[in-house]
Design brief:
The protein is of the alpha+beta class. It has 11 helices and 14 strands. The strands form 4 sheets. The chain has a 5-stranded antiparallel beta sheet with strand order 4-5-10-6-7. Strands 11-12-13-14 form a 4-stranded antiparallel beta sheet. Strands 1-3-2 form a 3-stranded parallel beta sheet, covered by helices on one side. α9 runs antiparallel to α10 (249-261) and α10 (249-261) runs antiparallel to α11. The radius of gyration is 19 Å and the shape is globular. The structure holds flavin-adenine dinucleotide (FAD). Flavin-adenine dinucleotide (FAD) binds at residues 33-41, 43, 58, 79, 106-107, 111, 114-116, 118-120, 122-123, 128-129, 170, 175-176, 202. Flavin-adenine dinucleotide binds at residues 33-41, 43, 58, 79, 106-107, 111, 114-116, 118-120, 122-123, 128-129, 170, 175-176, 202.
Protein backbone atom coordinates (compact mmCIF):
# COMPACT_ATOMS: atom_id res chain seq x y z
CA UNK A 1 0.00 0.00 0.00
CA UNK A 2 1.29 3.46 -0.97
CA UNK A 3 1.71 5.87 1.96
CA UNK A 4 2.94 9.46 1.93
CA UNK A 5 4.10 11.60 4.83
CA UNK A 6 2.76 14.76 3.22
CA UNK A 7 -0.99 15.20 3.13
CA UNK A 8 -2.59 17.09 0.24
CA UNK A 9 -3.44 20.62 1.43
CA UNK A 10 -6.92 21.04 2.95
CA UNK A 11 -8.91 23.57 4.96
CA UNK A 12 -9.37 22.54 8.58
CA UNK A 13 -12.60 23.81 10.12
CA UNK A 14 -13.50 23.35 13.78
CA UNK A 15 -17.21 24.05 14.35
CA UNK A 16 -18.43 24.52 17.93
CA UNK A 17 -21.98 23.23 17.38
CA UNK A 18 -23.75 20.51 15.40
CA UNK A 19 -25.66 23.18 13.42
CA UNK A 20 -22.40 24.82 12.40
CA UNK A 21 -20.92 21.44 11.39
CA UNK A 22 -23.84 20.46 9.17
CA UNK A 23 -23.99 23.83 7.47
CA UNK A 24 -20.31 23.39 6.56
CA UNK A 25 -21.13 19.90 5.23
CA UNK A 26 -24.04 21.33 3.22
CA UNK A 27 -21.76 24.01 1.74
CA UNK A 28 -18.82 21.79 0.78
CA UNK A 29 -20.74 18.56 -0.13
CA UNK A 30 -18.52 15.66 -1.18
CA UNK A 31 -15.38 17.80 -0.83
CA UNK A 32 -15.75 17.77 2.98
CA UNK A 33 -14.92 14.97 5.41
CA UNK A 34 -15.62 14.80 9.13
CA UNK A 35 -12.58 14.21 11.34
CA UNK A 36 -13.22 12.59 14.73
CA UNK A 37 -10.24 10.58 16.09
CA UNK A 38 -8.61 10.40 12.65
CA UNK A 39 -7.45 6.78 13.12
CA UNK A 40 -9.17 5.75 9.88
CA UNK A 41 -9.45 9.07 8.02
CA UNK A 42 -5.81 10.12 8.31
CA UNK A 43 -4.63 6.68 7.18
CA UNK A 44 -6.80 7.00 4.07
CA UNK A 45 -5.57 10.57 3.48
CA UNK A 46 -1.96 9.41 3.71
CA UNK A 47 -2.72 6.60 1.29
CA UNK A 48 -4.38 9.21 -0.99
CA UNK A 49 -7.52 7.05 -0.99
CA UNK A 50 -9.30 10.22 0.24
CA UNK A 51 -8.17 13.76 -0.52
CA UNK A 52 -10.81 16.05 1.00
CA UNK A 53 -10.45 19.77 0.33
CA UNK A 54 -12.13 20.50 3.66
CA UNK A 55 -11.71 18.60 6.93
CA UNK A 56 -14.37 19.26 9.57
CA UNK A 57 -13.16 18.39 13.06
CA UNK A 58 -16.04 17.56 15.43
CA UNK A 59 -13.84 17.55 18.53
CA UNK A 60 -14.88 21.02 19.75
CA UNK A 61 -18.62 20.27 19.65
CA UNK A 62 -19.93 20.21 23.21
CA UNK A 63 -21.89 17.13 24.26
CA UNK A 64 -20.89 15.07 21.22
CA UNK A 65 -18.48 13.05 23.38
CA UNK A 66 -20.75 12.35 26.33
CA UNK A 67 -22.45 9.24 27.66
CA UNK A 68 -25.72 10.15 29.34
CA UNK A 69 -29.24 8.94 30.04
CA UNK A 70 -30.24 5.91 32.05
CA UNK A 71 -29.82 2.20 31.22
CA UNK A 72 -33.30 1.61 32.70
CA UNK A 73 -34.75 4.11 30.20
CA UNK A 74 -32.42 5.01 27.35
CA UNK A 75 -28.64 5.41 27.25
CA UNK A 76 -27.21 7.91 24.76
CA UNK A 77 -23.62 7.77 23.55
CA UNK A 78 -22.38 10.81 21.60
CA UNK A 79 -20.83 9.99 18.22
CA UNK A 80 -17.47 11.55 19.17
CA UNK A 81 -17.13 9.51 22.39
CA UNK A 82 -13.78 7.75 22.40
CA UNK A 83 -13.41 4.01 22.84
CA UNK A 84 -11.42 4.78 25.99
CA UNK A 85 -14.37 6.69 27.52
CA UNK A 86 -16.72 3.83 26.68
CA UNK A 87 -14.24 1.32 28.08
CA UNK A 88 -14.10 3.32 31.34
CA UNK A 89 -17.86 3.80 31.63
CA UNK A 90 -19.28 1.90 34.60
CA UNK A 91 -22.77 1.97 33.06
CA UNK A 92 -21.59 0.44 29.78
CA UNK A 93 -19.54 -2.15 31.66
CA UNK A 94 -22.39 -3.16 33.97
CA UNK A 95 -25.38 -3.00 31.61
CA UNK A 96 -24.05 -3.30 28.05
CA UNK A 97 -21.29 -5.88 28.55
CA UNK A 98 -21.38 -6.90 24.90
CA UNK A 99 -20.38 -3.38 23.76
CA UNK A 100 -17.83 -3.08 26.55
CA UNK A 101 -16.20 -6.38 25.53
CA UNK A 102 -15.93 -5.23 21.92
CA UNK A 103 -14.52 -1.79 22.72
CA UNK A 104 -11.84 -3.22 25.05
CA UNK A 105 -10.55 -5.32 22.13
CA UNK A 106 -10.18 -2.46 19.64
CA UNK A 107 -6.56 -1.75 18.68
CA UNK A 108 -4.13 -0.60 21.36
CA UNK A 109 -4.66 1.84 24.26
CA UNK A 110 -3.21 4.60 22.05
CA UNK A 111 -5.76 3.85 19.32
CA UNK A 112 -8.66 3.66 21.83
CA UNK A 113 -7.66 7.08 23.24
CA UNK A 114 -8.31 8.65 19.82
CA UNK A 115 -10.82 6.35 18.05
CA UNK A 116 -14.51 7.22 18.41
CA UNK A 117 -17.63 5.08 18.21
CA UNK A 118 -19.10 7.34 15.50
CA UNK A 119 -15.91 7.05 13.43
CA UNK A 120 -15.96 3.27 13.78
CA UNK A 121 -19.53 3.12 12.43
CA UNK A 122 -19.21 5.80 9.72
CA UNK A 123 -15.98 4.29 8.37
CA UNK A 124 -18.25 1.31 7.61
CA UNK A 125 -15.63 -1.40 7.61
CA UNK A 126 -17.35 -4.82 7.56
CA UNK A 127 -14.96 -5.60 10.45
CA UNK A 128 -15.91 -2.58 12.64
CA UNK A 129 -15.97 -4.11 16.11
CA UNK A 130 -18.72 -1.92 17.59
CA UNK A 131 -21.21 -2.86 14.85
CA UNK A 132 -22.14 -6.46 15.85
CA UNK A 133 -22.76 -5.58 19.54
CA UNK A 134 -24.85 -2.53 18.61
CA UNK A 135 -26.89 -4.58 16.10
CA UNK A 136 -27.47 -7.30 18.72
CA UNK A 137 -28.51 -4.65 21.25
CA UNK A 138 -31.03 -3.22 18.74
CA UNK A 139 -29.37 0.22 18.95
CA UNK A 140 -30.74 3.24 17.13
CA UNK A 141 -28.67 6.06 15.68
CA UNK A 142 -29.46 9.72 15.32
CA UNK A 143 -28.59 11.40 12.03
CA UNK A 144 -28.75 15.17 11.61
CA UNK A 145 -28.70 17.17 8.36
CA UNK A 146 -28.95 20.79 7.25
CA UNK A 147 -32.47 22.19 6.71
CA UNK A 148 -33.65 21.28 3.21
CA UNK A 149 -36.09 18.94 1.53
CA UNK A 150 -35.98 16.17 4.11
CA UNK A 151 -36.28 15.81 7.87
CA UNK A 152 -33.34 17.45 9.61
CA UNK A 153 -33.20 14.73 12.27
CA UNK A 154 -33.85 11.04 11.80
CA UNK A 155 -33.58 8.12 14.14
CA UNK A 156 -32.96 4.76 12.48
CA UNK A 157 -32.11 1.20 13.61
CA UNK A 158 -28.38 0.70 13.23
CA UNK A 159 -29.00 -2.39 11.14
CA UNK A 160 -30.11 -0.17 8.24
CA UNK A 161 -27.06 2.12 8.42
CA UNK A 162 -24.49 0.09 6.47
CA UNK A 163 -24.70 0.04 2.67
CA UNK A 164 -21.51 -1.85 1.66
CA UNK A 165 -17.78 -1.93 2.41
CA UNK A 166 -16.88 1.69 3.33
CA UNK A 167 -20.43 2.87 2.57
CA UNK A 168 -23.29 4.02 4.78
CA UNK A 169 -26.65 5.58 4.02
CA UNK A 170 -25.33 9.01 5.16
CA UNK A 171 -25.73 11.79 2.59
CA UNK A 172 -22.86 14.29 2.18
CA UNK A 173 -24.66 16.91 4.32
CA UNK A 174 -25.49 14.51 7.16
CA UNK A 175 -23.65 13.52 10.31
CA UNK A 176 -24.13 10.88 12.93
CA UNK A 177 -24.61 12.50 16.32
CA UNK A 178 -25.72 9.83 18.77
CA UNK A 179 -26.17 6.13 19.47
CA UNK A 180 -29.18 5.16 21.60
CA UNK A 181 -29.47 1.97 23.61
CA UNK A 182 -32.63 0.51 25.08
CA UNK A 183 -32.75 -1.24 28.45
CA UNK A 184 -31.71 -4.89 28.52
CA UNK A 185 -34.68 -7.17 29.34
CA UNK A 186 -34.50 -9.35 32.47
CA UNK A 187 -33.04 -12.81 31.80
CA UNK A 188 -30.83 -11.60 28.92
CA UNK A 189 -27.18 -12.62 28.59
CA UNK A 190 -24.87 -10.91 26.08
CA UNK A 191 -21.36 -11.61 24.77
CA UNK A 192 -18.86 -10.56 22.07
CA UNK A 193 -15.99 -12.60 20.63
CA UNK A 194 -13.47 -11.76 17.95
CA UNK A 195 -10.71 -13.58 16.13
CA UNK A 196 -7.82 -11.54 14.77
CA UNK A 197 -4.20 -12.27 13.88
CA UNK A 198 -3.03 -10.65 17.12
CA UNK A 199 -5.05 -9.50 20.12
CA UNK A 200 -5.00 -5.87 18.93
CA UNK A 201 -5.73 -6.62 15.30
CA UNK A 202 -8.73 -5.94 13.05
CA UNK A 203 -11.19 -8.86 13.22
CA UNK A 204 -11.01 -11.77 10.78
CA UNK A 205 -14.39 -12.82 12.16
CA UNK A 206 -16.38 -11.34 15.05
CA UNK A 207 -19.72 -12.22 16.67
CA UNK A 208 -22.09 -10.76 19.21
CA UNK A 209 -25.11 -12.34 20.89
CA UNK A 210 -27.89 -11.08 23.17
CA UNK A 211 -30.08 -13.95 24.29
CA UNK A 212 -33.11 -13.82 26.59
CA UNK A 213 -33.89 -17.07 28.36
CA UNK A 214 -36.95 -17.79 30.50
CA UNK A 215 -37.21 -21.17 32.30
CA UNK A 216 -34.45 -22.59 30.11
CA UNK A 217 -36.23 -21.63 26.87
CA UNK A 218 -34.80 -19.03 24.48
CA UNK A 219 -37.38 -16.26 24.10
CA UNK A 220 -35.33 -13.79 22.04
CA UNK A 221 -32.00 -14.22 20.22
CA UNK A 222 -30.11 -11.42 18.44
CA UNK A 223 -26.92 -12.69 16.87
CA UNK A 224 -24.65 -10.60 14.64
CA UNK A 225 -21.45 -11.20 12.73
CA UNK A 226 -18.65 -8.93 11.53
CA UNK A 227 -16.01 -9.28 8.76
CA UNK A 228 -17.84 -12.08 6.94
CA UNK A 229 -20.03 -10.12 4.49
CA UNK A 230 -19.95 -6.70 2.72
CA UNK A 231 -21.51 -5.20 5.89
CA UNK A 232 -21.90 -6.38 9.48
CA UNK A 233 -24.91 -8.73 9.44
CA UNK A 234 -27.56 -10.31 11.62
CA UNK A 235 -27.47 -14.10 11.68
CA UNK A 236 -31.23 -14.52 11.38
CA UNK A 237 -31.20 -18.29 10.67
CA UNK A 238 -29.19 -18.83 13.84
CA UNK A 239 -31.71 -16.70 15.77
CA UNK A 240 -34.67 -18.70 14.40
CA UNK A 241 -32.91 -21.95 15.30
CA UNK A 242 -32.72 -20.85 18.94
CA UNK A 243 -35.99 -19.01 19.52
CA UNK A 244 -38.69 -21.02 21.28
CA UNK A 245 -36.31 -23.91 21.96
CA UNK A 246 -34.94 -25.27 25.21
CA UNK A 247 -31.25 -24.36 25.26
CA UNK A 248 -29.04 -27.46 24.95
CA UNK A 249 -25.76 -28.41 23.27
CA UNK A 250 -27.39 -29.75 20.09
CA UNK A 251 -29.51 -26.65 19.48
CA UNK A 252 -26.50 -24.39 20.02
CA UNK A 253 -24.40 -26.45 17.54
CA UNK A 254 -27.27 -26.27 15.03
CA UNK A 255 -27.44 -22.47 15.48
CA UNK A 256 -23.67 -22.22 14.86
CA UNK A 257 -24.04 -24.07 11.55
CA UNK A 258 -27.11 -22.00 10.61
CA UNK A 259 -25.20 -18.76 11.33
CA UNK A 260 -22.42 -19.77 8.94
CA UNK A 261 -24.94 -20.42 6.14
CA UNK A 262 -25.80 -16.72 5.94
CA UNK A 263 -22.34 -15.26 5.48
CA UNK A 264 -20.68 -14.05 2.26
CA UNK A 265 -17.00 -13.98 3.22
CA UNK A 266 -14.18 -12.72 1.00
CA UNK A 267 -10.51 -13.65 0.81
CA UNK A 268 -8.29 -10.73 1.81
CA UNK A 269 -4.91 -10.04 3.43
CA UNK A 270 -6.26 -11.21 6.81
CA UNK A 271 -7.93 -14.49 5.93
CA UNK A 272 -9.33 -16.84 3.31
CA UNK A 273 -13.07 -17.16 2.71
CA UNK A 274 -12.92 -20.87 3.67
CA UNK A 275 -11.29 -20.05 7.00
CA UNK A 276 -13.95 -17.45 7.73
CA UNK A 277 -16.69 -19.95 6.84
CA UNK A 278 -15.33 -22.62 9.20
CA UNK A 279 -14.52 -20.24 12.04
CA UNK A 280 -17.95 -18.59 11.84
CA UNK A 281 -19.61 -21.85 12.95
CA UNK A 282 -17.31 -22.08 15.96
CA UNK A 283 -17.49 -18.42 16.98
CA UNK A 284 -21.31 -18.29 16.72
CA UNK A 285 -21.53 -21.44 18.86
CA UNK A 286 -19.10 -20.04 21.45
CA UNK A 287 -20.71 -16.61 21.66
CA UNK A 288 -24.13 -18.22 22.20
CA UNK A 289 -22.73 -20.44 24.95
CA UNK A 290 -21.18 -17.43 26.70
CA UNK A 291 -24.38 -15.37 26.40
CA UNK A 292 -26.47 -18.29 27.74
CA UNK A 293 -24.10 -18.69 30.70
CA UNK A 294 -24.52 -15.00 31.48
CA UNK A 295 -28.29 -15.48 31.34
CA UNK A 296 -27.80 -18.16 34.00
CA UNK A 297 -28.05 -21.28 31.79
CA UNK A 298 -25.13 -23.66 31.45
CA UNK A 299 -24.75 -25.38 28.09
C1 LIG B 1 -3.51 0.49 14.68
C2 LIG B 1 -5.00 0.45 14.48
C3 LIG B 1 -5.73 -0.59 15.04
C4 LIG B 1 -7.11 -0.64 14.87
N1 LIG B 1 -7.80 -1.68 15.42
C5 LIG B 1 -9.14 -1.75 15.26
C6 LIG B 1 -9.88 -2.82 15.82
O1 LIG B 1 -9.34 -3.71 16.49
N2 LIG B 1 -11.23 -2.85 15.60
C7 LIG B 1 -11.88 -1.87 14.88
O2 LIG B 1 -13.09 -1.95 14.73
N3 LIG B 1 -11.19 -0.85 14.34
C8 LIG B 1 -9.85 -0.74 14.51
N4 LIG B 1 -9.15 0.29 13.94
C9 LIG B 1 -9.85 1.27 13.10
C10 LIG B 1 -10.23 2.59 13.80
O3 LIG B 1 -9.45 2.86 14.92
C11 LIG B 1 -11.72 2.62 14.22
O4 LIG B 1 -12.55 2.37 13.12
C12 LIG B 1 -12.09 3.97 14.87
O5 LIG B 1 -13.17 3.76 15.72
C13 LIG B 1 -12.42 5.09 13.90
O6 LIG B 1 -12.81 6.22 14.66
P1 LIG B 1 -12.13 7.65 14.46
O7 LIG B 1 -12.77 8.56 15.45
O8 LIG B 1 -10.67 7.58 14.48
O9 LIG B 1 -12.68 7.98 13.00
P2 LIG B 1 -12.09 8.97 11.89
O10 LIG B 1 -10.86 8.39 11.30
O11 LIG B 1 -12.01 10.35 12.41
O12 LIG B 1 -13.29 8.89 10.85
C14 LIG B 1 -13.59 7.67 10.17
C15 LIG B 1 -14.66 7.95 9.10
O13 LIG B 1 -15.90 8.27 9.70
C16 LIG B 1 -16.34 9.60 9.32
N5 LIG B 1 -16.95 10.16 10.53
C17 LIG B 1 -16.41 10.22 11.79
N6 LIG B 1 -17.29 10.70 12.66
C18 LIG B 1 -18.43 10.94 11.96
C19 LIG B 1 -19.73 11.45 12.33
N7 LIG B 1 -20.04 11.79 13.58
N8 LIG B 1 -20.68 11.57 11.35
C20 LIG B 1 -20.39 11.23 10.07
N9 LIG B 1 -19.18 10.74 9.66
C21 LIG B 1 -18.21 10.61 10.60
C22 LIG B 1 -15.09 10.31 8.84
O14 LIG B 1 -15.38 11.34 7.91
C23 LIG B 1 -14.32 9.17 8.21
O15 LIG B 1 -14.81 8.90 6.91
C24 LIG B 1 -7.77 0.38 14.11
C25 LIG B 1 -7.02 1.43 13.57
C26 LIG B 1 -5.66 1.50 13.75
C27 LIG B 1 -4.89 2.65 13.16
Amino acid sequence: MYYTRILKPFNLLMPQTIDEAISILAKYGNKAKILAGGTDLLVKMRQRVLTPGCVVSVNKIKGLNAIDGDPKGELRIGAATTMRSIESSRVVQDYYTVLHEAVCQIGTAQVRNMATIGGNLCNASPAADTAPPLISLGAEIKIVSAPGNRETTRLIPIEGFFAGPGKTILQSDEMLTEIRLKPIAKGTGCAFLKIGRLGVDISKVSAAACIRIVDGVCKVARISLGAVAPTPIRAKKAEITLEGKKICEDIVAEAGDAGAEEIRPVKDMRSTADYRREVSKVIVRRVIIRACQRAGVDV
